[in-house]
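Regression test attached.
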Amino acid sequence: MSLIQSLNKEFESRIRLGIMSILMVNEWVEFKEMKETLDITDGNLASHIAGLEKNDYIEVKKEFVGKKPKTSYRATKTGRKAFNQHLNSLEKLINRK
Amino acid sequence: MNNKHQDDIEHIRSMMERSSRFISLSGMSGVIAGIVALIAALVSYYLIKNNGGEYFGNKHIILSAPLLTKLVITLVITLIVALFFGIYFTIQKSKRNHQKVWNSLSKRLLISLFIPLAAGGIFCIALFFQGHFGLVAPVMLIFYGLALMNASKYTFNDVEYLGYFELILGLISLFLVGYGLIFWAIGFGVLHIIYGIMMQKKYH
């Protein structure tokens, strides 16, 4: 497998990279907070989150605070592993130059 | 292609940083807090002096109840003014950084700062009531240093170093009771001003 191929296609988008980066250094992160940090729209974030969730890279927790619904996300073990591998490949690609 | 990967890494780094550290603390708050503290130290010095007490030295001085009240009021006003400007400059800077002032990061930062600080505050009040006035300034410095070290994990690393300096200063002044005001002025005045200027230069 060549190095380029070892890059994870799921992390090709900047937004997905951003989501995973945030979840690597924080436990549970709320939707609203994630949106503000990434500076993107609700719909945009939701679609990328759905993609990551489908791959079992992140898990979702829905709860109510008073009457307000609150959705938070956390990176799964699979997600952390995949992201770390992606980082390693990126690093190798850069250092190869 | 290589550039894209380089940018990806940069992006990852910046997102990790932005989501785990509150980077909107302003150096200006430090400078103002320092100046306010120096003024407070001068006011306290004259309050004691006009009362016939000679502050410096190991002589036992008697602090009368009205004088104590004045000193405490000075301290409280100092705290309020310093906090006001601290909050003001932080709001200004967070607008420039496009970072929300009140988010889970600033909450965590405040909690980790205030728990050691509250413990220190209660400790000082106890010392005060038991008449150990000479130990109040060292204890304030020590707990403030510990609070900064604790809070630094949610903001700039520089805050940790400021914490070490405050702690060391407090520990030294434990053994030089009677010179507490000088140490207090250095710790809360001079160190804050130096820290503020350094931060302003580094991150502005």
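Expected vs. actual: identical. The CA atoms of residues 166 and 187 of chain B lie 6 Å apart.
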